[in-house]
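User: tokens in, sequence out, please.
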């Protein structure tokens, strides 16, 4: 199930970034410089699925600027605004993911939360199916992790 669900997660995330944030799904245009800082949002879809999106902090600021109608160069964009914007992206992705998979109506979407990177400890989990992928927006990578609990 994970590969199909990962494709859904990936497609929904790409669509939201393009349609809501006005970001092009481009892999080129950015020098091969690793992110100095990242911001990761976690969303739980009921008790069965966890979604993680890890953004380069520079892209997170671009997203925030697009939400606010400001240039990401403007100094008035602070870290609280960036955190709120990324959490809202997580909320949109999580809600759309639940709808796309036709999850039962009593399945609750957790409030999005900013977490430390889950990449290292998630691989140590047992009784979970973990799938990862990377998409690009404006040349920046966005790392996706889908964790499905095996019942």
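Assistant: Sequence out:
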């Amino acid at each position: 199930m994970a590969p199909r669900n990962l494709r859904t997660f990936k497609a929904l995330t790409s669509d939201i970034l393009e349609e809501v944030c006005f970001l092009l799904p481009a892999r080129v245009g950015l020098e091969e410089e690793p992110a100095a800082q990242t911001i990761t949002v976690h969303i739980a879809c009921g008790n069965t699925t966890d979604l993680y999106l890890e953004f380069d902090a520079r892209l997170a600021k671009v997203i925030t600027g697009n939400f606010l109608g400001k240039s990401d160069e403007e100094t008035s964009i602070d870290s609280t605004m960036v955190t709120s914007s990324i959490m809202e992206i997580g909320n949109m992705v999580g809600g759309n993911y639940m709808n796309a998979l036709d999850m039962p109506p009593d399945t609750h979407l957790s409030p999005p939360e900013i977490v430390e990177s889950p990449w290292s400890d998630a691989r140590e989990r047992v009784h979970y199916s973990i799938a990862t992928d990377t998409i690009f927006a404006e040349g920046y990578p966005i790392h996706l992790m889908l964790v499905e609990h095996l019942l």
